[in-house]
Design brief:
With 332 residues, this protein is of the alpha/beta class. The chain is built from 13 helices and 13 strands. Helix 1 packs across helix 4, helix 2 crosses helix 11 and helix 11 packs across helix 12.
Length: 332
């Protein structure tokens, strides 16, 4: 997951996104997925595309639009009249606070289990309890990695100010900083972790050290939903089917992901196996879409910690479950 700071949201983009494009028959559509092709959150969409699940469910998805940041992804969605998107919760909340007509319609990734914090094999650091006075990499100010670094320190009984957080600008750059002894610890998310796990040693795993935190959510605009209700429902069903396939067939799913993400099949297989078997307090990484309200509220509080969100947030008013299948409509 990469929940970057939401900034520069254009009210013009909101207005443009509110325009409804009339549909005639079954129309080809794109969807938007933050960090698709890079981060683990979007892997089920690669499987759904390759296995034909979108068409099977009645959604003629012709492509997936992506970007490196959740804010950019959401602007792309609104400006392009795209009916469905997957973005970070803090981006959605910030946009709604600024007047965007969007709703959270599914809870797609309900944990941050793709993250581990790693050191060089010879490091004296064995756990989060040993991080006092150490340098910990994070990507950018107000990012998820910054907030999670604070939570990792707390899991070791330490305060944020008892360690030095070092901005690296990216996860790959964080690994390079670790190699060059510029930091003592770096966050390494999947699929990077599966690529480098034999080179470094994990001293904290999010699935073990942190509670379930909403990672990415499905969203739709109020203006688009009347004409696109069935399309949106079909996308949610297809993604859910893809998650089930990944659990049952991790190696085949890994090979599909490898092609879509342009990574080595062994790395993709390892990442899929890791995340399909991951449980954080009993909560799976890739969810069915059912809303986990506790995880959403935790994420909002975490983002407030680093200043990515402010003010009172009633997330219950931002959620719309009408697009979910009946068996997962109930909010957990």
């Amino acid at each position: 997951m990469s929940m970057m700071k939401f900034k520069g949201f254009s009210m013009g983009a909101i207005a443009l996104g509110a325009l409804v494009v009339s549909a005639v028959g079954v129309r080809a559509e794109e969807i938007v997925v933050s960090n698709y092709g890079v981060s683990a959150n979007g892997m089920p969409y690669a499987v759904a595309m390759a296995k034909g699940y979108f068409k099977d469910e009645g959604a003629n998805v012709t492509g997936i639009v992506t970007s490196a940041g959740g804010g950019t992804t959401l602007r792309n969605m609104l400006a392009g009249n795209v009916p469905y998107g997957e973005v970070n919760p803090n981006v959605v909340v910030a946009a709604i606070q600024q007047g965007a007509d969007i709703k959270i319609i599914s809870d797609n990734v309900s944990t941050v289990a793709e993250f581990v914090w790693a050191v060089k094999p010879g490091s004296s650091i064995q756990s989060a309890k040993d991080l006092k006075g150490k340098k910990i990499a994070y990507t950018n100010p107000r990012s998820t990695s910054q907030a999670l670094a604070s939570l990792v320190l707390q899991s070791g009984g330490l305060k944020t100010e008892e360690a030095e957080l070092v901005k690296t600008g990216g996860f790959g750059e964080g690994v390079a900083a670790l190699d060059n002894d510029l930091v003592d610890v770096a966050p390494i998310p999947e699929p990077l972790w599966s690529k480098f796990k034999d080179k470094y040693r994990a001293i904290a795993k999010a699935s073990e050290a942190l509670p379930p935190l909403a990672n990415v959510v499905g969203v739709a605009t109020e203006a688009q939903t009347p004409a696109k209700t069935e399309f949106i429902r079909a996308v949610i069903r297809a993604r859910r089917k893809a998650v089930d396939f990944m659990i049952a067939n991790p190696d085949e799913a890994g090979d599909i992901v490898a092609k879509a993400y342009n990574i080595e099949p062994a790395v993709a297989r390892a990442a899929v196996r890791n995340l399909t078997t991951s449980k954080t307090d009993g909560v799976a990484y890739w969810g069915s879409g059912q809303i986990n309200m506790a995880g959403l509220k935790r994420t909002i509080e975490v983002q407030k910690m680093v200043g990515a969100l402010s003010g009172d947030v009633d997330v219950t008013k931002m959620v719309d479950t009408r697009f979910l299948p009946d068996d997962i409509k109930a909010i957990r």
